[in-house]
Amino acid sequence: MPLYHLSHRKELSPMHRIIIPLLLLSLFAVSAFAKMPLDKTQGGCGTQECSQCHTMTVKEAGELLSFAGVTVKSVKPAPSHGLHEVMFEKNGGAGIVFIDYGKKHLVQGMLIDLKTKEPVAAHDKDLPRPKQFSGVDPKLIPAQHGVVMGNPKAANRLYVFTDPDCPYCRQLHPILQQLEKQMPELAITVMLYPLRQLHPQAYDKSRVVVAGKKRDLLDKAFEGKELPKPKGDEGKAAIDAIIKFAEEQGINGTPMLLLPNGKPYQGPRDVASIKKAIEGK
């Protein structure tokens, strides 16, 4: 079972540190401890801080997580009682997971403060801050590796960084299909950006689509239909170039829509709203 960062790439947001897509994650519930009257002369939880009773060393955490191939850097009491918060590193990225006091259960996800509705983490200040993506010069986008929807000769161009196995990308694809019908003078350049740690099969699917440059393969991929396996290294260089560019620019998640001026689209994902943004309205 892989451990995942909340962020989709190596550079992690300050609060979202576990490699799991935020919009898909269902965090396992942690049972609250009942407030039982304790005989303080006998010791036990309730007579002192929980962290004094329930401890976990970096070595212990490393042994428990050895199956995941991560390097444990730190262990702290989690903001929620009953959990140890473990910060780890893997493949140049950092993340956190939680282990219960009994050291029997691993919790992947994030803790949400119900008052602020914001994620909370004991290691928040220890984790690296990501590069904030604010846009890119469209001329720098490796558009030659994209698959074009709509009018390939159009001067007006929308760039979409997307993953065929990302559920939100799949929801967006029919909207892009509607957009190309309503805007015949628009080229939609689909930049296949597979999030391999989250969607292991997306990389090969993306390779097949970009190698064939066929619209039917693109649509099938986002419809969840089976695609042929890539042959040899076909499509590998193109997809690797897209991944490298996206990571360098700080594009950490999908779908990411870039307007013709290279600025990220931040509005609602419906045809009318995207169309207005493209037209500069």
What does this structure look like?
The protein has helices at residues 50-53, 58-64, 167-182, 202-212, 215-222, 236-249, 271-278, and strands at 71-77, 83-90, 93-100, 106-107, 111-112, 119-120, 147-150, 156-162, 186-192, 256-258. It has 281 residues and is an alpha+beta fold. It has two domains: 1-130, no CATH class; 138-278, Glutaredoxin. Strand 2 (83-90) and strand 3 (93-100) form a beta hairpin. The longest helix has 16 residues, at 167-182. The relative contact order is 0.15.
TL;DR of this structure?
The chain has 281 residues and is of the alpha+beta class.
Give the SSE layout.
Layout: H1 50-53, H2 58-64, E1 71-77, E2 83-90, E3 93-100, E4 106-107, E5 111-112, E6 119-120, E7 147-150, E8 156-162, H3 167-182, E9 186-192, H4 202-212, H5 215-222, H6 236-249, E10 256-258, H7 271-278
Parallel strand pairs: 8-9
Antiparallel strand pairs: 1-2, 2-3, 3-4, 5-6, 7-9, 8-10
Helix pairs in contact: 3-7, 4-5
Which structural traits does this protein have?
alpha+beta, four-stranded antiparallel β-sheet, four-stranded mixed β-sheet, 10 strands, 24% helix, elongated, disordered N terminus
- Give the radius of gyration: 22 Å
Biggest sheet descriptor: 4 strands, antiparallel
Q: In percent, how much strand structure appears in the residues?
A: 15-25%
- Poorly predicted regions are 1-44
Write out the strand line-up for the largest beta sheet, numbering strands in chain order: 1-2-3-4
With helices defined by DSSP (H or I, 4 residues minimum), what is the helix count? 7
Shape: elongated
Number of domains: 2
> What is the total tally of β strands?
10
